[in-house]
């Protein structure tokens, strides 16, 4: 069987054990004579799957009482609009931090619904760092503060979550959810598209503090109102059933590894191997400031676009897939989400070293 190391930013690799388990069960799930894809979302078998998925996620992230977990559709991009539609109150104000392309999209969408202030930005330096945010910068009358905890394209991440006091903190955690331990109680709302650390694309996870539910205006479409999904246990309409099943398998895999604490150790090791190789390299370097480096997405550049292209092409022939950087940063980007094994990162570093030796000759 051919498998490659896929460094794609998303959809990304899934753990092999998860794919094998899904393969085993795909035609006849638990002797039902049906695939999970064919089960009614109101059946007992599917109820067990969604209940277990939520239970495991709560356990893995230590989600406190007083928070709801919603399994919905629309991707993180839909949340860019759903968040302001639900959370902007009579003041209609929110504060955003602009740390890259995805933040910008969130800001653009939110501006359709209220008065949006950008309280900090790293656009001045091509988003190569995370700007400082402290309580004094936040409007105490804002309905929420929005951050992107990991910037998938630029390869930056918050090393510390800002303290927003009484103003609820909303986070787009699409590209680093489940990668390291976080204190959920610091957030009012967390959302994430599934297709990096959770499962296949098509599922969106929202973790929301209960007091933030039920604030949407009367004319909010039912599908975009958190209350709808909260009251129906994510079963208002047909949810992405197979995606939820796959997420459950991923959560089981994470638990079997020892949970997020162990996953974080592995992720730190993987990132350290790659950042160290970049420090040592005479050709490639990280464009990101040291105090803002992501564990999940690691861009690197040389000073020649021809060399970058040759690297990406040769890497692909060695089973190292999708290393081309995003067009806004250039060069390469290695996305090393939870499912990327340490061997994948080691293979990349070995290839980098060989490439460099050949180049120098
Ligand atoms: N936010 C971040 C940080 C992302 O990385 C992405 C996709 O890569 C998105 C939002 C958009 O997610 P979706 O495609 O689920 O709408």
Keywords:
Aspartate Aminotransferase, domain 2; two-stranded parallel ribbon; 9 helices; single chain; 361 residues
Sum this structure up briefly:
The chain has helices at residues 16-25, 44-61, 75-87, 101-110, 226-231, 241-257, 259-280, 305-317, 342-360, and strands at residues 5-6, 67-72, 93-98, 115-121, 145-148, 150-151, 156-157, 169-172, 189-193, 204-209, 297-300, 320-321, 332-335. The chain has nine helices and 13 strands.
Report on the structure:
The mean pLDDT is 97. The protein is 35% helix and 15% strand. A seven-stranded mixed β-sheet has the order 2-10-9-8-5-3-4. Strands 1-12 form a two-stranded parallel ribbon. The protein has a two-stranded antiparallel sheet with strand order 6-7. With 361 residues, the chain is of the alpha/beta class. α1 (16-25) crosses α6 (241-257) and α7 (259-280) runs parallel beside α9 (342-360). The chain has two domains: 17-256, Type I PLP-dependent aspartate aminotransferase-like (Major domain) (Aspartate Aminotransferase, domain 2, 3-Layer(aba) Sandwich); 260-360, Alpha-Beta Complex (Aspartate Aminotransferase, domain 1), CATH 3.90.1150.10. The protein contains nine helices and 13 strands. Pyridoxal-5'-phosphate binds next to α3. Residues 10, 75-77, 102, 148, 152, 172, 174-175, 193 line the site of pyridoxal-5'-phosphate. Homodimer. Its EC number is 2.6.1.52. Belongs to the class-V pyridoxal-phosphate-dependent aminotransferase family. SerC subfamily. The modification N6-(pyridoxal phosphate)lysine is found at residue 196. It catalyses: 4-(phosphooxy)-L-threonine + 2-oxoglutarate = (R)-3-hydroxy-2-oxo-4-phosphooxybutanoate + L-glutamate; O-phospho-L-serine + 2-oxoglutarate = 3-phosphooxypyruvate + L-glutamate.
